[in-house]
């Protein structure tokens, strides 16, 4: 039975490394029938919200997964998706959401859910000021949709949780790309399905580039490499085990287990995404310098040299490593504090290096003064037979608007984690980037710098963020980005009004 002790165990595993989840198992979301047609801006009609948010079943522990010899598989880099057409203002794409059997463990395959048959999905590289239009076709047996995480996007293309693309249907998403360059990502966000769908592989990079950033001469082209970290639990047949309380002890790096990546003796830019459903990664590179240059919303004001990077579920961080300081023939191992080695870099050749990391990257403009301050609390309620995941004391209701916000206004949100250790949360709001302005009176964390859309909130902690809500009108959600918490109801809804 799902009770307080088991949820607290979940929290401890999440922070400690071997994450566990309150996943809705495959097959649970029939509670959300029928699925409306995607072209009608479909809503989940007749939704049994309680039924789809709570899963109380437990399953026997699976046998250990097949052994893997470390650093014998090369880390793949997902190919860049090519447009099917171009106009003077827009790039047009098509992408199928479909199952695929892919090799994670050498010599065998694992059934996954994918974008275009790839895991991670193909990388979409876009440019500021040039629009992107993508037609997604849902080839799954379940409803799906797509959220551009970190995107400044009109409501009808946000991947709003209740806008479901029915099986066999297609939906067109339009991204104006009016924000500065940033490492964004796209993933499933269909209410009741998202935890299972993300866990099974529906994730990919959306890299937005701009001319100002290009002028800085940061590492680019083949030396600009997206890296997606996430975790999973597999059985002895290399099949994903997603039923709670299975631990997720296997870390995947671009979909592979402990791969290696050959590099030249020069500077590289890595775009690191934590795409785990519930995890805090703490990473080091054999003590080598990691020059952090970017956060969720783009470049930092100035580079920050570090030896450890902390990144929670949904967060991104861009960093530069100068392998020219290491030398040809040497190796560096990227390790996670609790999972151990996750990737080895092999310096295999010399190469010219015209790139640089300038002392000034991109100033962080001050936001207008806030006219509204709100308090938002994330918590679990253990008073009943089944725990409830709450945002401001309520589970998510698509018919309830929690905040109506006048477009163009600036607000401060004080985000509170009312749960005791070890129940941590992350907070993500759609539509806007924000500045972290306070962490309970304590110094801000290095990961708080720059423009953010996701922030880690430890048990018992409060974090204040400031955001300006732009011109797009309509309903958007905010939620815990420990996705199982969100599925259980830890999500609210805002509406931008004239």
UniProtKB/TrEMBL annotation:
PROSITE patterns: MULTICOPPER_OXIDASE2, TAT. It comes from the Bacteria. It is an enzyme of class 1 (oxidoreductase). It catalyses: 4 Cu(+) + O2 + 4 H(+) = 4 Cu(2+) + 2 H2O. Its EC number is 1.16.3.4. Residues 104-212, 383-496 form the Plastocyanin-like domain. InterPro entries: Cu-oxidase-like_N, Cu-oxidase_C, Cu-oxidase_fam, Cu_oxidase_Cu_BS, Cupredoxin, TAT_signal. Keywords: Metal-binding, Oxidoreductase. Monomer. Belongs to the multicopper oxidase family. PANTHER family: BILIRUBIN OXIDASE, CUPREDOXIN SUPERFAMILY PROTEIN. This is Multicopper oxidase CueO. It comes from Amycolatopsis melonis.
């Amino acid at each position: 039975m799902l009770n307080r002790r088991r949820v607290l165990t979940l929290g401890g595993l999440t922070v400690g490394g071997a994450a566990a989840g309150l996943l809705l198992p495959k097959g649970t979301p029939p509670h959300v029938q029928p699925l409306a047609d995607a072209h009608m801006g479909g809503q989940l009609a007749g939704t049994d919200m309680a039924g789809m948010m709570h899963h109380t079943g437990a399953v026997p522990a699976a046998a250990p997964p097949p052994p893997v010899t470390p650093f014998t598989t090369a880390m793949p880099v997902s190919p860049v998706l090519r447009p099917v057409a171009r106009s003077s203002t827009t790039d047009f794409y098509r992408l199928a959401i479909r199952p695929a059997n892919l090799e994670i463990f050498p010599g065998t395959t694992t059934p996954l859910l994918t974008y275009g048959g790839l895991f991670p999905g193909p990388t979409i590289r876009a440019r500021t000021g040039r629009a992107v239009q993508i037609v997604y076709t849902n080839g799954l047996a379940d409803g799906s949709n797509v959220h551009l995480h970190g995107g400044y996007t009109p409501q009808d293309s946000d991947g709003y949780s209740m806008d479901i693309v029915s099986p066999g249907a297609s939906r067109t998403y339009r991204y104006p790309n009016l924000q500065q360059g940033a490492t964004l990502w796209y993933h499933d966000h269909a209410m009741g399905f998202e935890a299972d769908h993300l866990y099974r592989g529906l994730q990919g990079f959306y890299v937005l580039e701009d001319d100002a950033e290009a002028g800085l001469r940061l590492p680019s082209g083949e030396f600009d490499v997206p890296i997606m970290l996430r975790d999973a639990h597999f059985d002895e047949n290399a099949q994903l085990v997603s039923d709670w309380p299975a631990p997720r002890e296997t870390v995947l790096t671009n979909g592979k287990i402990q791969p290696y990546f050959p590099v030249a003796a020069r500077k590289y830019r890595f775009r690191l995404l934590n795409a785990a459903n519930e995890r805090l990664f703490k990473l080091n590179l054999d003590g080598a310098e990691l020059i952090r240059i970017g956060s969720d919303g783009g470049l930092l004001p100035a580079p920050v040299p570090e030896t450890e990077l902390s990144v929670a579920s949904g967060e991104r961080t861009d960093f530069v490593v100068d392998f020219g300081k290491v030398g040809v023939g040497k190796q560096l191992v990227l390790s996670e504090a609790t999972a151990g080695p996750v990737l080895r870099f092999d310096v295999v050749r010399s190469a010219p290096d015209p790139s640089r990391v300038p002392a000034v990257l991109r100033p962080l403009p001050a936001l207008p003064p806030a006219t509204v301050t709100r308090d938002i609390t994330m918590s679990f309620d253990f008073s009943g037979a089944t725990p409830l995941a709450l945002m401001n004391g309520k589970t998510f209701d698509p018919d309830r608007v929690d905040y109506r916000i006048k477009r163009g206004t600036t607000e401060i949100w004080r985000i509170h984690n009312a749960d005791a250790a070890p129940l941590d949360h992350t907070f993500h709001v759609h539509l806007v980037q924000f500045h972290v302005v306070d962490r309970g009176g304590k110094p801000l964390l290095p990961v708080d710098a720059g423009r953010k859309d996701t922030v880690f909130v430890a048990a018992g902690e409060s974090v204040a963020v400031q955001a300006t809500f732009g011109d797009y009108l309509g309903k958007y959600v905010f939620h815990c980005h420990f996705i199982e918490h969100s599925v259980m109801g830890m999500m609210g809804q805002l509406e931008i009004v004239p």
